[in-house]
Write a structure and sequence with these properties.
- With 115 residues, this protein is of the alpha+beta class.
- It has one domain (2-112): Trna Endonuclease, Chain: A, domain 1, CATH 3.40.1350.
- The protein is 33% helix and 30% strand.
- The chain contains three helices and seven strands; from the N terminus they run H-H-E-E-E-E-E-H-E-E.
- It has helices spanning 2-11, 17-30, 76-89; strands at 35-40, 43-45, 48-50, 55-60, 64-69, 93-98, 108-112.
- The strands form two sheets. The protein has a five-stranded mixed sheet with strand order 1-4-5-6-7, sandwiched between helices.
- Strand 2 (43-45) and strand 3 form a beta hairpin.
- The radius of gyration is 14 Å and the shape is globular.
Length: 115
């Protein structure tokens, strides 16, 4: 994802996730993509819709969920979080991006739900 590399090159590591989210959304929109930020994600349990405050960081073209992190190390829980968001939302494709690294090369992780 070239847009993420452009953001990381310009801003570097060490900032808040919200900064990377705003910058990445801007870059993706410059590329002509439809991007929604902080998309509410309700949970349905036992037929009841629970409004718990879950939010997708970015939803691109109504297809792909992007979960942004700015952490020292991605943990298993970060991967599970994205997979849970994909399952709850019904979207199949997601990317987990950790911007708090010297190089993004190995820190953009593609996740696919249901395959």
């Amino acid at each position: 994802m070239l847009a993420a590399f452009r953001v990381h090159t310009a801003l570097g590591p060490g900032l808040l996730e919200s900064v990377y989210e705003a910058a990445l959304a801007h870059e993706l929109r410059k590329d002509g993509l439809l991007v929604a930020t902080q998309v509410p994600l309700p949970v349905t349990y036992d037929g009841v819709r629970l409004e718990l405050g879950f939010r997708l960081d970015l939803l691109v073209e109504h297809k792909m969920v992007i979960e942004i992190k700015s952490v020292e190390t991605l943990l298993d829980v970060h991967h599970k979080q994205l997979l849970s968001y994909l399952k709850l939302s019904g979207f199949k494709l997601g990317q987990l991006i950790n911007f708090n690294v010297p190089s993004l090369r190995d820190h953009i992780i593609r996740k696919v739900n249901g395959l």
